[in-house]
Amino acid sequence: MIVRRIIIVVLALVGGAIAYQPASAQTSDTPSGLLKADIKLSAVHRPVDNGLMVRGLTNLPDGMRLYVALIAPNGTMIESLSTVVAGGAFQSGPYSFHGKQIPAGSYTAAIDSAPPGQQPSNVQSTLGHRGEKLTGPFVKAQREGRRVITTLPVNVP
């Protein structure tokens, strides 16, 4: 296990950057060559414009296109915005409710990746042209290929 971690660090340093790699991204039950998608979310209020930013940490490749929709506790979609993964992270927003601050509470973020054929070439080479190298509980098979489609809780402070 220590040797594997050293190899990962050396490979990351040789590549010139260290990307976010959560512990659950590649586990012993994930076959080699596959990427087990992992996403962790947080919400941050921006006092400047009363907007809410949704931030995510992920092991998805840089350049991957995502859509993040903020869903109110009653199930109403507040807004859906597009974003791109960069350096193991993404940010979406600002979200507001008719220009006003979103009230504190428990919301849901619905995350949906663009279809594999609409992803940049570097993402397609990492995940496969139909997303066939993408796996995990956040991944769903669709007509266009395998995509990240999930909902995660977001607590608005």
Judging from the principal axes of the Cα atoms, what is the shape? Answer: elongated
Fraction of residues in β-strands: 35-45%
| C-alpha Rg (nearest Å) | 17 Å
* Secondary structure tally, helices: 2
Descriptive labels:
157 residues, mainly beta, 5-stranded antiparallel beta sheet, 3-stranded antiparallel beta sheet, 13% helix, elongated, disordered N terminus
Write the layout of secondary structure elements.
Layout lengths: L1 H13 L20 E2 L2 E8 L4 E8 L6 E7 L5 E8 L4 E7 L9 E9 L7 H7 L6 E2 L3 E4 L2 E12 L1
Parallel strand pairs: 1-8
Antiparallel strand pairs: 2-3, 3-6, 4-5, 4-7, 7-10, 9-10
Q: Can you offer a commentary on this structure?
A:
By secondary structure, the chain is mainly β. The chain has two helices and ten strands. The strands form three sheets. The chain has a five-stranded antiparallel beta sheet with strand order 5-4-7-10-9, with no helix packed on it. A three-stranded antiparallel beta sheet has the order 2-3-6, with no helix packed on it. A two-stranded parallel sheet has the order 1-8. A hairpin with a 5-residue loop joins β4 and β5 (77-84). It is elongated and about 45 Å long.
